Amino acid sequence: MKKDVLKLENQICFPIYLCSKEIIRKYTPWLKELDLTYTQYIVMMYFWEKEKSNVKEIGNTLLLDSSTLTPLLKKLESKGYITRDRSKVDERNLEVMITDKGKKLKAKALSIPEKMGKCIDLSEEEATALYKLMYKILMNVERNDG
Amino acid sequence: MKKDVLKLENQICFPIYLCSKEIIRKYTPWLKELDLTYTQYIVMMYFWEKEKSNVKEIGNTLLLDSSTLTPLLKKLESKGYITRDRSKVDERNLEVMITDKGKKLKAKALSIPEKMGKCIDLSEEEATALYKLMYKILMNVERNDG
DNA sequence: TACAATTAATTTGTATACAAATTAATTTAA
DNA sequence: TTAAATTAATTTGTATACAAATTAATTGTA
Description:
The structure is a homodimer of 146-residue chains.
Chain A: H1 13-32, H2 38-49, E1 52-54, H3 55-62, H4 66-78, E2 82-86, E3 94-98, H5 100-109, H6 112-120, H7 124-144
Antiparallel strand pairs in A: 1-3, 2-3
The structure holds a DNA duplex (30 and 30 nucleotides).
């Protein structure tokens, strides 16, 4: 009896997809207190490390299409967390910069990683192994295409 | 110097989110040949195992909200892969059933898991470890809520 | 047995996601 | 030096996702 390769149970991608969704669902109420969605939170984390950037750079780091970022960044701008201005050097580029309000938001987010950590509840070794596997897959998947 | 818990690099959820997205992106062109999206593919895999179901059952298995499934199932119906009919026993339930055309689609999908496996490119041990970790997280995250 | 509570699916509203087409600015090359 | 090619961001179109509200059917109970 040959193994059914299309059985859901035999898929490795399916649980990754589920995990991603469930984790984001878990974040949602915590992020709601900061008036952020998960993707907006990722973008804010990016700006807590890097004061100034542009759409292309953000997209390269977060693996988000510019067409996803454009409305998202407008949203963050409307909340006062970032500014959006065309570069004077090259007007094709949009300079995106975090505001003071955006920087202050970080303090409110400080408790979230620990809460999520408790929720995920992996040992140090498990988390490290998972981390490595995820980046290995990312590397491999990206190997051949753009 | 204390570790910055909000650094993107220190997040375990972020690479899971990236992996999920990148894997789905990788599936897309292969599934396009079957006229399926990734979520539609998941639902079809479900029906390749279970001929008949309903919205609630599908949602419980695939962790998809009924409001996501309603339009998706209508789409699969319009492609002729499933049928949708109110149960005569309890008209609240929608009986969803795979068609012959839907069953035949499986043959065309048979090569996809191997292609994706090559793309992910993990050893047997790595894949097993990852699989276990994903289901552990799913279990843990679901522990407290509904 | 009516009426309240529950249940299943749908609708509505908001926010991703990404491919493809478009726009506008800059660079390359004939 | 100007037309073609490239580049960055936006717009458009389609498809998830899920919470909250709604609708319709069934069940529980006073």
